[in-house]
Amino acid sequence: MALITKYDTPASLRDVPEGSSFYDKWHNFVNGAGGVSAAPPVPPWIDPVRVDPDVVTVRTLSWIGFPRKTLTVDRRDDRAQGFADAEDSGATGDWRPKQKEYFEWHTTRDEAGKVTKVAFSTETPQYFERLAEVDKERVLELYREHVDPNVQWDELVNADGTYDRHNRWTTTDGIMHYVNNINELNQAIGLAQNGANATVVNLADRNLAPDRDNFEFPVIDFNAADDYIIREVAALCRSGFDVTVHEPVGLYIDGWDDSGWTKPDGSPVGDYWRITRGRPGAVLRLEYKVPSEEGFVVGDILIGGRPVLHGGQLAEHMTSSLPVVVARRSS
Amino acid sequence: MTEPAAQEILERIAAAEPELLTGVDVGNLGDVPAQPGRARAETPAERIEPVYDKAARRDIQANIVPGFNKDHQHFLFLRIDDRKQARRWVAAISASITSMDEALGFVREYRARRLAEGVRAPAGLTATWVNIAFSHPGITTLAGADEANRFGEESFRQGLAARSTYLGDPTSAEHPGHRDNWFVGGPDNEADILVIVAADNEQDLTTRVEEIRDGLDGLDVVYEQCAAALPGTLAGHEHFGFKDGVSQPGIRGRLSEAPNDFITPRYPAAPTAGDQDKRPELYGKPGQQLVWPGQVLLGEPRQHTENLLDQAAPPDPPTYPVWARRGSYLVCRRLRQDVPGFWDFAAAAATRAGTTPEHLASMMVGRWPSGAPLMRAAMADEPALAGDEFANNNFLFDDDTRPLPLRYIPGYQGDNFPRAEGDMLGTVCPHYAHIRKTHPRDTATELGKPHDSMLRMILRRGIAYGEPYLGAAHPDPDADRGLMFLCYGATIEDQFEFLTRRWSNLPNQPNDGGHDPVIGQRDSRGNRERYIDVPTADGSTVRIIIERDWVVQTGGGYFFAPPISALTTALG
Prior knowledge:
The structure holds two protein chains of two kinds. Chain A is α+β, with helices and mostly antiparallel strands. Helices cover 24% and strands 19% of the residues of chain A. Chain A has a domain at 10-61 and 183-249. In chain A, strands 1, 4, 5 and 11 form a four-stranded antiparallel sheet that branches. In chain A, strands 2-3-8-7 form a four-stranded antiparallel sheet. A three-stranded antiparallel sheet of chain A has the order 6-9-10, with no helix packed on it. In chain A, helix 1 (21-31) runs antiparallel to helix 4 (125-134), helix 4 (125-134) crosses helix 5 and helix 6 packs parallel to helix 7 (224-238). In chain B, 58% of the residues are buried.
């Protein structure tokens, strides 16, 4: 018996009817090259397609949504500039190079430049590429529903007709999914696998014994997510547990904290969050917009007494996550 | 009055006798006496730590480093009435401000005698000290808006009242903790200046406070608060009964080029060549993480964001006025404590979790009332462990804590207490425990590696105020008692506010398991409910909801403690 017989879509989305070949494509993607089962199943990492582990608990690995490097390293002494930096769209103008925490967002402003809406996503381009192979109409519908009703199919594809993961509606003019190449589901899972493997080898120097604690563990990156995922899994495995992914495998928006956010009159903000993809506990897309009847917009809100000028100010109070299964060590 | 079960525990805590180290010789300069063949080699990181010579030490206020740590303190919150007179008063009092240089010698002698004699307070060693700090409006009045606005720390410029609900304080003006109801520091009663007076005995304190009060010129007293350590064997404990301030970061820096002449003494033996163990260079005392001084003092080398042991340059260009270098931000929070409320909760929750109230409450704190950490004494208090300053802070949370060889310390018998074992799932010291939330040590957090956690450390300088509940024959359960929480840091937002908002107030950071049940606040659109997931004997957890506030904010402020030289230049 195995824990998983077929990988489900993130948040168990059903964008196309059950039985569609899309679901096989997604399973093969997760299970295939670069996916969960790509590396040999070396304990303490478990391949859930082959093994049914003795589950102890599910642990939600969660980290800050706003890029740590921008906040803590590059703009350690100028937080306000950091929020502006995070909206950088790169030299080509069609990606989000600063948004590296498996968490991306797009800020919408009115003509006066005031923030009116912020949309956050943890969805992957691979999902939409596979969906487009099966059902172009559905992809177009999703863009029209979530990004803009005026989206046209030819705006979403390359010259050869394949899905363009850097199309304008998920870069400059909106967001449907990640466009920063570092934000890959496989990358996050690979970090977890490496964390497990680090229990038997020293990642920094193979001539040395495996690291004994998180102080000895080598620094992976400036990012929060990478260092967090690999260390947390490594520490679990050093403690005698096996680890694997949790179904439905995905990267999720885990938390958002709007305490201390105030309306223009000083009273606490209402609940302006809207889950638009996924479900509570497995959120893939979240939007923040003030209902029109309130008479003000996001840019009028104060966070700890400071006006919202950038979507990143919201992202600082949000977390994204990768749930994993913690199991008793297999013999 | 508390439930009978809780009352019994309070009586036991009040009657407990501490077990202190005795006969230990750490010398009077913070270094151990040189022993032939037993000299400690300095590490590469230590050799490049900045030297704070006498001139520098005389410029830094003492409550920042090494800290007053005195049993009697008085806080005068002042409002400037007349700028000219107030500047003159600031200049005049500058000669009375206690410096790091003056306090360091005293503190070292005090500590050496304490460890040698096995007492908490060596006889005949007394001093009375004064420090001062200014709010942003205070600096604006005294030095002008241009100077005041050179402070890049936005939270400081905004002030505590403006940041109150961001810290989880009540949003309803009906709540006693709402900023409108504060004794000081609310929207209409913010102080410009905070004067801290500290003494080893009450009479000396009273005399010095009266002198200062009588000499005020161009200043009004907005509020004042007397504070004192709890009496007898409870000294150093807060009102709930737990030893406070056991774990503090150590500040890197030297007093001279002489070997091992550090602000924070180093006790681990020098690392062995080729050993990847970083702890000998990371710790002062075992478990006491060393941070670069710029984490507390503006303009000094600060902690590197990526490397545990390395320094990073101070902000360039400076994010503060030139005259503010070697000053520090001071956060003051007047926290009222509801002792019966805390223990009644512990008693009721213990029943649900199948343990004792004392154990349940200790799981809320992470230490037993004596100060012994759960990580090294899982099921019962261990006063001897609490009293051993080379052992009571020596533990990790995630991994097994390996033995750490120490340099030769005459008279010290070694750390022979049970070692801490890794507790990844928080079954011994729960993830919600106050000490695990606010100082996660080796744990990876939502900011990644534990190196980042070193950027969050603060120097705490709190002291209890109000009539004791513990040990009193007929305590008034509704009396105003609590903690004057004070902490210093080089930023407010990335240190105090980060610790409060992200780690204490969120149930899933730095690890999932509940809110910090001691100081955690939560106010989501008026809902102040919090929870803890208490581990039980069968390996499961039981979620217990916290509906009552047993720590309520009743005042405070954001201040800046300048270098003493600024009192006769920019500010006076």
